[in-house]
Structure formats: C-alpha cells, structure tokens
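Researcher: We plan to redesign the surface later, but first we want a full-length starting point. Tokens attached.
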C-alpha cells in the first residue's frame, strides 16, 4: 500500500521496526509534535511514510549527540516545514558531523541492516568510493553519519564517475571554506584564553555547518533552476531536459 504521495505506507508497528525504536516512542514523539500525524486510511488505521522514517532517524541522531528533548524540539521547529526525506537525511548528516568520530566497524549483515537494504558488490564499491565505508577484512568500517545519505545516492541515476567528480568538487571547496573560516575565527579570538577559545569553537561548529549547508542548498537550487529554464528555452519543442512538456 502507498500514500497519496506515492510513498510506501507503513503501520506504526512497521515504522517502529524499521526505525529501530518502540511503538511507544513513535507515539510519544507524535504527541510532542516531533513527528507529523499519520495519514488515516481505511478502518481508521494510521499510515506513515518515508518522511516519518527520516525524521525518526534525525531525532535518534540528535539524541546520540547528547541533545536534550527540548533542544531537539527547538532544532526541528527551526527547520522548513516542507523538507523532503532527502533533505532530512542531509540534516542528519550535518548533525552527525558535530560528533568527533562516527566511524564504527561492523559486519556486512549489520551494514545491510543499517542501510535497510541488501548491498551488492557494486553498491559496496560506490559507498567505498564516497568514503562512506571501507573494507576491513571481512568487516567494514562505516561512517554512520554518512551512511543513510550514501545509500540514497545509490539510487541517483548518475554514473559512478560523475558522483566521484562531484565529491572531489565538494571536498576541495569545503576544505577551502574551512581554512578561510578558521583563519577568520583565529583572528577574532586571538586575544582570548585557550578555554574560552575551545568553548567558542564548540558553539560555533554546528552553527557554521548549518550556515554552510543552507547557503549551499540555496545556491544549488538557483543554479539548477537556471539550468532547467535555459534548457527549456533552447529546446524548440518547449520540453524540459527530461522530455516532459513544459506546460
């Protein structure tokens, strides 16, 4: 069964099982407004979709980082209300980046359980190329903060080489931005003591990451919108790049 948006419809028991939480936890988050209400189907049964699953993953990640329930509520209230499951997965990757180390060594069976899907050799090769996993004998070292995002990229219809090239661009520009921001912050706190500098850094890290993410998302949307609009204008048939009618 699917919802009106075409997403797979899950009962509360199925949602809890896939998210690795209890039904009681799902209901509790719902009463606190951390999860949107389910879609009510036949026989008054509530159904949940991939957005609920992505939100649960984000909430659990924030809890692993030591955030209180009140802090989680504040963070979720600040997010745009129309975030897609993909957007929520990016948010989770940002939250996971606040931790000093999220790399764990797991078996292939545990890796597939966390990915919530079987992983073929080609999938493993692509995840390794994105630095999400690395083989360690019969086990795998996995960056837990990037795993869900990496798994979603497996379904993106782009060539392996294109994804690697995109990763290179992102890494190079991210490193350049980090170096410049670090220089600015060092100059701003040059006269402060070590303890005060560490405290300021701890507070600034998530804020800077969030600011970079928001700026990048907006810039990318503008670039893609300009590309799509330009392609429509260049197409004498008035069709978009994917072949659909522009009307």
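Model: Full-length starting sequence:
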């Amino acid at each position: 069964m699917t919802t009106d948006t075409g997403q797979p419809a899950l009962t509360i028991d199925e949602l809890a099982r896939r998210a690795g939480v209890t039904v009681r936890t799902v209901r509790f988050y719902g009463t606190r407004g951390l999860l949107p209400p389910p879609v009510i189907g036949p026989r008054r049964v509530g159904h949940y979709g991939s957005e609920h699953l992505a939100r649960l993953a984000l909430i659990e990640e924030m809890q692993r980082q030591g955030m209180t329930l009140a802090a989680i509520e504040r963070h979720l209230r600040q997010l745009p209300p129309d975030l897609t499951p993909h957007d929520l997965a990016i948010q989770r990757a940002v939250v996971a980046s606040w931790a000093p180390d999220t790399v764990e060594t797991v078996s292939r069976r545990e890796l597939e359980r966390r990915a919530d899907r079987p992983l073929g050799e080609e999938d493993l090769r692509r995840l390794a190329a994105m630095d999400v996993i690395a083989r360690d004998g019969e086990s795998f070292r996995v960056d837990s903060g990037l795993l869900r995002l990496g798994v979603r990229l497996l379904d993106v219809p782009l060539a392996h080489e294109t994804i690697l090239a995109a990763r290179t661009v992102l890494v190079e520009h991210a490193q350049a931005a980090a170096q410049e921001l670090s220089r600015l912050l060092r100059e701003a706190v040059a006269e402060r003591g070590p303890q005060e500098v560490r405290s300021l850094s701890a507070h600034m890290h998530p804020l800077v990451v969030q600011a970079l993410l928001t700026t990048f998302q907006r810039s990318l949307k503008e670039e893609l919108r300009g590309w799509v609009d330009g392609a429509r204008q260049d197409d004498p048939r008035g069709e978009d790049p994917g072949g659909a009618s522009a009307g």
